[in-house]
Amino acid sequence: MRVKYEEMKDEFKRVLLKEGFSEQAANEAAKIFADNSLDGVYSHGVNRFVRVIEFIEKGYINPSAVPEKVSTLGALERWDGNLALGVLTARKCMDRAMELATDYGIGCVALRNTNHWMRGGEYGWQAANNEFIGICWTNTLPNMPAWGAKDSRIGNNPIILALPRKDGPVVVDMAMSQFSYGRIETTRMEEKELPVHGGYDIQGNLTKDPNAIEETGRVLPIGFWKGSGLSILLDLIASVLADGNTTNDIGKFDDEHALSQVFIAISKEQLGNSSELEQKINESVQYIKDSEPVSSDTEVYYPGERTMKTRIENTRMGIPVKEEIWEEIKSL
């Protein structure tokens, strides 16, 4: 079934208000969940909403909590999320990073004790839509084996890089696993296979079967050992900057919360030569778009382009959602 954007947002807001959020907080959070769904990231929007409510009711998310600044070192600030709703805290921290970048050219907010930010790309788009280069990442619970290992002791630690552009920002939003667990879950729910190998089955063979990967929990790092190494360093740098938990620490909790995250903004305006920079970006994007495709029915996309296409389609037709998921949300 398909649900109109405003209807979905209103339903999210209704539930969040009942859970004790203020009118402003409920409205802002509902918009983020709906925006994620509108852009086609259903695994971190409509499909994840019920679980977020469960986390609120378990006490992992505090509806009345407010993140606060802990310390300042020039253009770098440390913040404590105080286990407030992750999407609101992340948005606030990227806003603050942009304010710092306005003063210093670059701004960085390192955040501890926060909750899942849902789609990390949301905060890259946030920066790019305000004419800032955005870089952010998070650690997670242990959900991926280090290269050469069987058991999960590192996180898939998503990283986002975003570049502002008048014809549409260039945005990469990627986990350190070949596929995020959200994408694996969505593929399973659609009763499809992954397009390429995404992990290992119980026999230790590479597989495209999302059910087999969820059974073992052995997702494949991007670039094999390279993704494993990146995951480890992203986790440790986030923890050091924020003075927060590592993936190792988070794995000792009952469930995934009290994460560490980093938000960096760079002022495009202060780099100067704005028109020249825009031209250089456009020329590079077009150069990539002019690549010879591997087949006649294949199109070469730049990062973020398909997101904008999905946004337009879902705005016109409504956001696709499984009927049982929508009914569960309406019953909350």
In whole angstroms, the N-to-C terminal distance is: 19 Å
- Described by the principal axes of the CA atoms, the overall outline is globular
Relative strand content: 15-25%
Write down the overall mean pLDDT: 97
Number of strands: 13
Radius of gyration: 20 Å
Q: If classified by CATH, what would the architecture of the domain at 60-177 and 225-270 be?
A: 2-Layer Sandwich
Tally of alpha and pi helices: 13
Class by alpha and beta content: alpha+beta
Which strands sit side by side, in order, in the main sheet? 2-3-4-12-5-8-9
Q: Using the coordinates above, name the CATH class of the domain at 60-177 and 225-270.
A: Alpha Beta
The largest sheet is:
7 strands, mixed
What name does CATH use for the topology of the domain at 60-177 and 225-270? Ribosomal Protein S8, Chain: A, domain 1
Fraction of residues in helix? 40-55%
SSE blueprint and pairings:
Elements: E1 2-3, H1 5-18, H2 23-38, H3 49-58, E2 68-73, E3 76-80, H4 86-104, E4 106-114, H5 121-128, E5 132-138, E6 144-145, E7 152-154, E8 159-163, E9 170-174, H6 181-189, E10 199-200, E11 206-207, H7 210-216, H8 225-242, H9 247-250, E12 259-267, H10 268-271, H11 274-289, H12 305-317, E13 319-320, H13 323-331
Parallel strand pairs: 3-4
Antiparallel strand pairs: 1-13, 2-3, 4-12, 5-8, 5-12, 6-7, 8-9, 10-11
